Structure formats: C-alpha cells, structure tokens
Amino acid sequence: MASRMPSHSAILSKSLRASFQCLHRRPAQSLTPVQRQLQRRNISAYGYEQAKALTFPEYGDPPSVLSLHSHSISPAHGNLMTLRFLASPINPADINQIQGVYPSKPRFTTSLSTAAPIAVAGNEGVAEIIALGDKVKGEGFKRGDWVIMNGPGFGTWRTHASAETKDVVKLEEAARQGITPIQAGTVSINPCTAYRMLKDFVSLQPGEWFIQNGANSGVGRAAIQLGKQWGLKSINVIRARDDKAKEDKLKQELKDLGADVVITDVELQAQGIRDQAKEWTSGGREPIRLALNCVNGKAATAMAKLLASESHFVTYGAMSKQPLTIPASMLIFKDIHFHGFWVSKWANGNVEGKKKTVEDVLGLIREGKFKDTPTEVINWEWETKGEDLIAKVKDTLEGYREGKGVFVFGKT
Ligand SMILES: NC(=O)c1ccc[n+]([C@@H]2O[C@H](COP(=O)([O-])OP(=O)(O)OC[C@H]3O[C@@H](n4cnc5c(N)ncnc54)[C@H](OP(=O)(O)O)[C@@H]3O)[C@@H](O)[C@H]2O)c1
Fold first, then answer.
1. Distance, CA 216 to ligand 1 centroid (Å)?
2. What is the atom index within ligand 1 of the atom nearest the CA of 265?
3. Where does it sit, as one GO cellular component term (predicted)?
C-alpha cells in the first residue's frame, strides 16, 4: 500500500502526524481491526481524512488555472458528514464555470487550508458517506449511503469532501439498487434536463413529434430514449462529420436508442428539408410541436422553421457560441413560443420533483430501458498525478468526442 503524507501538515500536530505515519508503516497483521480499517482508508488515527481536489484560484482557461490540491478533513461531527466521491462527470457547464462564464458561481474559500481562496471544480457526482455527525444521523443518513449534489457549485472533482445535509440528496436504497456509480453520478443533470423539457413546456401525446439538435450529447441521448418510452417521435440533428463512415455510425447509434430520424446540421439547412419533414410526419398531418436547442446559430433557426404554429422552442445550451436569431415572422405569423430552461433553477424550487425525476430515470436504467451515455472513464487513484487529470479536462474542450469524460475514483 502506498503511504502518503498530509500536504497541509500545519493543521496536524506533530504527534498526530507521528501517529498517522506510524499507522502507515506498520504491517497489517500487527494492527487492530479498527486500525486496519483506518489504514485501508488512509486516514489518521485521529480521524482526519486526507483529500485531493482539482481547484482553481481564479477564473480562466481550465488547463491554466486548475491544479491538484491536497488537504485534510477534520472528523465529521454535529451536522457534518464526510463524503468519498465515487464518480463525477466533466460537463460543458463545469468548463464554463471555471472560465467564469457560467451564472452559477463556485464558492472560493480558504477552508481547504490555503492562504488565498480557491474553488473546487465540478458540479455533478455521486459520493458515499463514510463518516457523519449525530445531527446527520438524526436526519436519516447513515454510513454507506449514496448522495448526489443538491445543486450546482459544490465542487465534485475531488476525492473527499465535508458536507451538510442541505448540500446533498440521498439516493434511497431502492433507487440505488443495481445502479453503477457512473449511472448515479451522471443522472441528476442531463437526463433530468431532457425529462423536464419534454414534459414541462407542451403536453405531447404519444405519436407526436419533437425535434432537437446536439442529439448525440448526454441531454440529446436522454431525450431520444425518454421520448421513445413515452411514445414520442423525434427528429435529431447532429453536426456533420468529415468522415462519412463515422457520421453514419453515429446516426445508427442514435437510431438504436430510439431516434426516428437523424440528420446532420448540413442536411437540415439544405433545400427541400421542408418537403422531407412533411414526408416524415405523414404529409405534415403530425405536427412538430417542440424543439430543444443547445447549439444556436443558423442551424437552430433552421430547426425552428420546421415547427408548426404555436409550437414551443426551448433553448438550454449554447454550444456553438453563436447567438440565436429569430425571424420576426416566426413570432408574428406562427406565434412560436421561445423559452429558456435551466435545470438548476428548476431544481431549486422543486426538491421533491428532482428526486422523483432522478428516481424515474434510475428506474428505467434498472429495467434496461435507458442506456448510459458513452463515457471515457478517467481513473482517479490516490497516486494519480494532477497533470494527468488536467490533461483529461483539456481533452473535453475539443468537439466530436466519442464519450463524456467521467472521473471514477478508485483507492482514494
Ligand atoms: N440548461 C440546462 O439546465 C442544461 C443542463 C444540462 C446540459 N446543458 C447544456 O446542454 C448542452 C449539452 O450538454 P451535455 O453534457 O449533454 O453535452 P455532452 O454530452 O458533453 O456533448 C457535447 C455536445 O455538444 C456538441 N458540440 C460541441 N461543440 C459544439 C459546437 N461548437 N457546435 C455545436 N455543437 C457542439 C457535441 O457535438 P459533436 O459530437 O458534434 O462535437 C455534443 O453533441 C451543453 O450546452 C450544456 O451546457 C444545459
């Protein structure tokens, strides 16, 4: 077992450090069961948990501002619990947050034993409770429970954290049954966003159509699958690939998830698309009444043009970094209703609704009716170097990826 030293030793007394090192040097057979457990978890005899986190001292380009920071967490007491993270994804919003262009700001703090404030990156993830104070026990939590974050800004790209009950939502035993850490760690943002957007803007009946761009994104894949479950039909727009074989493979992948039609942004903007759409929708007798947009630019406007009068167009992302341009005629003559959606804001006022939405999706996963979004697992062990983790974050800044980067925590 690799030994490790607390980097912020200032907060540990000399004797505490001695006991920590002593525990790590002794062969396992000479330890008591409790000491053996502590050694396995790499905590000091006094219960100080050693933690590492990807943090940033200021907003900027993620590879430039991120660094791996080590610190100690004091034993859980009162209303505090100690979490050990299991899986945390790298979502586009996490990148925007580090860049300082996301509306939800992280907490810059010196509580992780730094002279100047730093913030922990990451907004989504699942963690297990490894220690808890009496008040937390009194609220129905126990060791081994899995929790997801209650809202953005907590900082999930870290091995461990100290949290209060208000920071987390517990995944009940039944909801967690048969669910992997990656599934639990990626359920609360993208699938919830797709779920709410399909349900909350217009009441689509089985057999009705929606159209979406960014269809191969986590949200897009979730929308395809939820829509299929609910009997909806979908037209799905992806970005064209230079490599036609790859493009065809991606189209087929989305059809296998339940997409009725998959086209590229180039095909969407080509002449004759209206006639084509009529063909798909039984000569236009099946109106397309909802559009989901996370891209913007000309391709989003082209998507809006396929909507029936009085339909709803929901914007929830801005991947192309282009503005959304709406011809006045769409408002005046077609009365298309344009909305924005932000799942964090929705969840703020819907704590129970979020829990129910998460449980519904986990239920579909358990029944084999909802496939995971493709992921690139980024293993994070105690010894993993900061530069390797940051290089993986940098990779996610590129488009045309085959899978979402997810930190999966091993022996931490
Ligand atoms: N408002 C909300 O509550 C909410 C919640 C969740 C997510 N979101 C937003 O939803 C979007 C998708 O998030 P996600 O986590 O599902 O994504 P993801 O799985 O990480 O996938 C990224 C998606 O963005 C596309 N993309 C990347 N660069 C692009 C560009 N320059 N122009 C057009 N498309 C581009 C990718 O297409 P390629 O494969 O072609 O690169 C892919 O479809 C993001 O904008 C995110 O911020 C919003």
1. 8
2. 33
3. mitochondrion
